[in-house]
Write a structure and sequence with these properties.
CATH topology of the largest domain: OB fold (Dihydrolipoamide Acetyltransferase, E2P)
Strand order of the largest sheet: 3-2-1-4-5
Number of strands: 5
CATH class of the largest domain: Mainly Beta
Shape: rod-shaped
Helix content: 40-55%
CATH architecture of the largest domain: Beta Barrel
Number of helices: 4
Largest sheet: 5 strands, antiparallel
Radius of gyration: 39 Å
Length: 158
């Protein structure tokens, strides 16, 4: 009985040892999947990135054009000249010319201004670039983007 018990004990130990050494049926698949995930991490889209920041920049002249100021002054002076008689007419002409020049200056400045968006993008390769363009394309910080031809577009646009 003692030998029969020791034979059973040895058989049980061998069975447990063999089970511990065996690999699950899908273990090779898991290693293959890990390898593929590793390869995917190293594939970097050279034109893809993520928006870090977008800021609005006004461009254009802070001064109105001389031509617009002169034209405004001439029109204002002509309109002012239509008012009053004598010294009143002279005063109205000067006041009209000044007001016309101010209006011409303001209109010229407003027409010269453009809004430009400076978009800072961290590319998938880790580098950060800034792009200036006339539209933000409804992007914001965190938006995945594609850079093509020096312009930034949302990645879902493709």
């Amino acid at each position: 009985m003692k030998t029969q018990f020791s034979h059973l004990a040895i058989a049980a130990l061998l069975a447990l040892s063999a089970g511990a050494c065996a690999t699950p049926a899908n273990a090779g698949d898991r290693r293959h999947q890990d390898y593929n995930d590793h390869d995917r991490r190293h594939e970097i889209c050279q034109e893809c990135g993520t928006v870090r920041d977008i800021s609005r920049i006004s461009s254009g002249s802070r001064r109105g054009s001389t031509g617009a100021i002169v034209v405004g002054a001439l029109i204002g002076g002509a309109l002012g000249n239509q008012v009053g008689k004598g010294d009143g007419r002279k005063a109205a002409t000067v006041a009209g010319a000044v007001a016309g020049g101010v209006v011409g200056n303001k209109v010229s400045k407003d027409n010269n201004r453009k809004t430009i968006y400076r978009i800072s993008v961290r590319m998938d390769n880790g580098r950060v670039y800034s792009f200036d363009q006339g539209s933000s394309n409804h992007m914001r910080a965190g938006t995945r983007v594609v850079v093509q031809g020096g312009r930034v577009y949302p990645a879902d646009r493709r």
